[in-house]
Amino acid sequence: MKNRQTRNLLPILALASLFIKISGSNSVHPVLTGPDKAYLGSRAVYRCTAPGSSPPVRYELVSSDGALMASSVDPQGDQPATLGMKVSEASAGAYHCRATAGGNTGVSNSITLSVVIPPLQTTVTSEPFPPVLYEGSRLVLSCGVDRGSHLSYTWFFNRTEVDGDIEDVFNVTGNKLVVEEVTPEHAGSYYCIASTSVQDIQRFSSSSDIQVTVKVYVSKPEISFSVFREGKSYRANVTCWSSRGSPPANFSLLLDEAEVYSVRATQSLVGWFVVEVVPGLDMGLAHCQVKTELQELKSEPVTLEVVPVGGDVSVNVEYLYTSASRLAAALLTCKVSRGTFPLVSWLLDDSVLPSLPHSALINEGQTLILTQLGPEESGSYRCRARDSYDSSGPWVESEAQLVQVTEARMTTTEKISISFCCFLLLVLVVCSVCVLKMFNHDRAHPQTAPVNSDDLSLSELTSRAEDKKTESPHIDFDVHNQVYW
Ligand SMILES: *[C@@H]1O[C@H](CO)[C@@H](O)[C@H](O)[C@H]1NC(C)=O
Ligand SMILES: *[C@@H]1O[C@H](CO)[C@@H](O)[C@H](O)[C@H]1NC(C)=O
Ligand SMILES: *[C@@H]1O[C@H](CO)[C@@H](O)[C@H](O)[C@H]1NC(C)=O
Ligand SMILES: *[C@@H]1O[C@H](CO)[C@@H](O)[C@H](O)[C@H]1NC(C)=O
């Protein structure tokens, strides 16, 4: 019974072992590893193994169209084969490995190879070209190469890489750097670097610099004038300027709407014109005009009239007290009823004011501040005025005004506290001058009288004095000194 069973099994076992033998000798399963990118002109090296195949094993690197690229034989059957080929432009495509062992052949996975061409001759092109454009317009810079593939681009602005911090100032996509609305801060030099990378080997090509210029629109021009004497006649120097804008521009002077002079400003946006004037005579309405290739703007008008100093001159005295009702300062203002360019000077007891240690002049000398009132400062004050443009002209003098210390002697404590108050006032003055300077930065006046506004002043005193200033006729021309940003 047992014997018969064994006899029945035998053919099955034989068949099975045969099957195993056939399938074993047929199963050549090669595996291909290697690069999917390689530089043009380099050698691409692949490895092929067919584990478990009986030696000798023949390996072949074959392209997708069947061309044999490289081959090698492994006599032992335990070494992976190294199959290399020189990369040409035609090398791009899919590759697989074919392994033959014991009369059986197997085909591996396939690897697609890209041929990387290193960048050559990188240049930046701009739109518009040349890269000179007005603020608010669109700028596109493109990084181009004569030859190259698989490229990455890096931009540099003023030699600093455009990334992270300054990326939101620029839009960088692909090989382009775009600024939708340029501002003056985009002006500067730009260059780009094109690069490729294959297995940690990088190749670069850098462009040369391109200089981007951003032009600023000119602001409405401003006008002012000063007067000087030349021999027996008088001339006005009419100055026109724009506080903002890129030169060049043409400035012209219009008198009663007719252009009389024109100058070309190439370095800074200022032009000046000298015209003859007769003091006391209205010479007409003057305007400035600024013209660029894109703009034409006219200033506010100014009446070209020089009123000689005349009428009444008077001194107005104001006393300022501390919160404890102590006299802290005196504010003397010289009122000149007529005159476009008055020059004011002060007299104390009929001699020209010596420079008192606790005094200051503001408003072009028209306001005198006495920050301490001692015997030295007491006396009769007068002011006088003449035309600043005529040093031989007559002075018009005011009546005398008595300024006196009326208080009784002060105690030491009072002295100390008043000194402290004065110190505080001084600090205030310095601060207010700074603030005023910031605001008045771009103002310009017809420079005629000595300017002492940088000296001592109080914020309160200054504002009071400024109020007075507008009453005086000589600043008619300041009204137009607006700053446009
Ligand atoms: C960048 O692009 C976005 C969307 O296109 C745009 O809103 C932004 O203004 C651009 N920035 C610059 C600096 O051009
Ligand atoms: C870039 O450089 C230019 C000079 O080439 C300079 O005028 C400009 O202020 C610089 N801009 C910045 C943002 O650094
Ligand atoms: C006219 O004034 C400008 C400044 O505003 C000055 O630079 C120029 O020299 C003056 N011209 C004359 C002739 O005084
Ligand atoms: C400015 O003046 C020059 C001559 O001085 C002239 O050639 C030029 O065309 C003028 N430019 C404009 C924008 O008017």
From TrEMBL:
Keyword Glycoprotein: yes
Domain of life: Eukaryota
Keyword set includes Glycoprotein: yes
Residues covered by the Ig-like domain: 30-114, 118-213, 301-403
GO biological process: cell-cell adhesion
Subcellular location: Membrane
Main location (coarse class): membrane
Signal sequence extent: 1-24
Keywords from the named record: Disulfide bond, Glycoprotein, Immunoglobulin domain, Membrane, Signal, Transmembrane, Transmembrane helix
Gene3D superfamilies named in the record: Immunoglobulins (2.60.40.10)
Any one GO molecular-function label of the UniProt entry: cell adhesion molecule binding
One GO cellular component term noted in the UniProt record for this chain: cell-cell junction
TM spans (from-to): 416-436
Bilayer topology term: Single-pass type I membrane protein
Matches recorded under PANTHER family: IRREGULAR CHIASM C-ROUGHEST PROTEIN-RELATED (PTHR11640:SF31), NEPHRIN (PTHR11640)
Protein known as: Fc receptor-like protein 5
Organism the protein comes from: Salarias fasciatus (Jewelled blenny)
